[in-house]
Amino acid sequence: MSKAIQLFIACTLVISTVQAQPKSTNNPKDQQLIQMTKDQLKDKIKGGWAGQTIGVTYGGPYEFKFLGTMMNDYQPISWPDGAIKRYFDQEPGLFDDIYMDLSFVEVIEKFGVDAPVDSFANAFSRAPYPLWHANQTGRYNLLNGIKAPASGHWSNNPHADDIDFQIEADFAGLMHPGMGRSASALCDKVGHIMNLSLIHI
Question: What digits encode the pLDDT tens for the residues 5-42?
Fold first, then answer.
């Protein structure tokens, strides 16, 4: 995994100036040019991956325990030392939101951000890690001859409206820092492998 992240960071660091592309607005602050050094960009990208990893392990113990209700402030959330390593060693399936991303990053590393959807679908469907819900059904469909985007359509995937890809879409933003429309286009392509509905910018 670390090799994929390092290669991803190396590819991304060619961008030394990041320009946001917001929708038309009257607020001049929303249209400012944002400049940063390669080191600043690298730090933000590393922070994105770290945030994903921390979020997965911080929320993991409470997943599916507050169905149909909010988790209130009075619920303590423990965060013992070594939690990330312990979960990685004992419950590696908890990291599906990250190892899915890394499969897609490896495709971009090999074929570029404009890689055809079949490249992403093949990497995802043949990877050895476990999957659940829309991801698992999407993989099953692909391995049984149903190509994307049909693999994520509700008529073939009863989990098509689950949030699987919304959880995994972080990689698209990390691969397109400051370029929301480009990230959204990548999500539209990859997300329909396993899901039907996506949010667009």
Answer: 444 444 444 333 333 344 445 665 666 788 899 999 99
Question: Is the bond preceding 149 in cis, omega lying within 30 degrees of 0?
Answer: yes
Pairing relationship of beta strands 17-19 and 33-35 according to DSSP bridges: antiparallel
Nearest to 135 by CA among 162, 95, 173, 113: 162
Residue type, 97: D
Model-level pTM? Answer: 0.77
Residues in the chain: 201
**Confidence at residue 30, expressed as pLDDT on a 0 to 100 scale:** 60
DSSP alpha helix (H) spans, the chain: 2-12, 38-59, 83-90, 96-111, 117-126, 133-143, 164-168, 170-175, 180-191
For residue range 62-86, what is the model confidence (pLDDT) as tens digits?
888 888 898 888 888 888 899 999 9
Q: What share of the chain is helix, strand, coil (3-state, %, to 5)?
A: 55, 5, 40
